[in-house]
Automatic annotation (TrEMBL):
Alphabetized InterPro entries for the sequence: 5'(3')-deoxyribonucleotidase, 5_3-deoxyribonucleotidase-like, HAD-like_sf, HAD_sf, Nucleotidase_putative
Protein name: Nucleotidase
Domain of life (superkingdom): Bacteria
Entry's Gene Ontology molecular function annotations: 5'-nucleotidase activity
Alphabetical list of PANTHER family matching this protein: NUCLEOTIDASE YQFW-RELATED (PTHR35134)
Protein EC: 3.1.3.-
Length: 183
């Protein structure tokens, strides 16, 4: 079968990783419990930044956020390798900016995920993911972001939401933990 995965905050804990980087850069010590209660995908609110300042901060730290030691969600790598070894096809579909695609693919590979070059899609807008998911005829797709998931309600692909504080209103099958996940 054909399994598609978003990367950031679906397979890896990118926002929390960025949250720690923000704390360091801003010389603050905001507790992780504040992070866990955020109802937005963006994290700037926790630091009292407005949308504009938050966007600037995020973009200025993008390379550091993406390509340092962002933790994987427990069990994610193991599950994907298991699916791969069972003969399933694993696709990655990430809206990271185009200029980071190659480096992202390399990073994901080095972290131990099974990556095939032809099955790595990157650099699209959130709303363009649906076209790719449709074209690829995926059996399953996993994402965390409400703006993406909201566009996927009328496709044959079985869509799951990776459980996060900002997507609690989404009413589709939910993955809380990758360890032990079965479809
Ligand atoms: Mg994501």
């Amino acid at each position: 079968m054909r399994f598609g995965f978003d990367i950031d905050d679906t397979l890896i804990n990118l926002r929390e990783h960025a949250f720690h980087i923000y704390n360091r850069k801003l010389n603050q010590n905001i507790g992780v419990e504040i992070f866990r209660e955020l109802k937005t995908v963006e994290i700037h609110e926790a630091f009292g930044l407005d949308k504009e300042a938050g966007g600037k901060m995020w973009n200025s730290l993008l390379e550091e956020i993406y390509f340092t030691d962002c933790p994987l969600f427990e069990g994610a790598k193991e599950l994907l390798n298991k699916l791969d070894s069972e003969g399933h096809e694993i696709f990655y579909i990430t809206s990271r900016p185009k200029q980071y695609c190659q480096k992202t693919r390399q990073w994901v590979k080095e972290r131990g995920f099974p990556v095939s070059e032809q099955r790595f899609f990157c650099g699209m807008q959130d709303q363009e993911k649906i076209e790719i998911i449709r074209k690829l005829n995926l059996d399953f797709y996993f994402d965390d972001k409400p703006a993406v998931l909201d566009t996927l309600s009328d496709i044959a692909t079985k869509v799951y939401v990776k459980d996060q504080s900002y997507n609690q209103e989404i009413n589709i099958p939910r993955v809380k933990e990758w360890a032990g996940f079965s479809y």
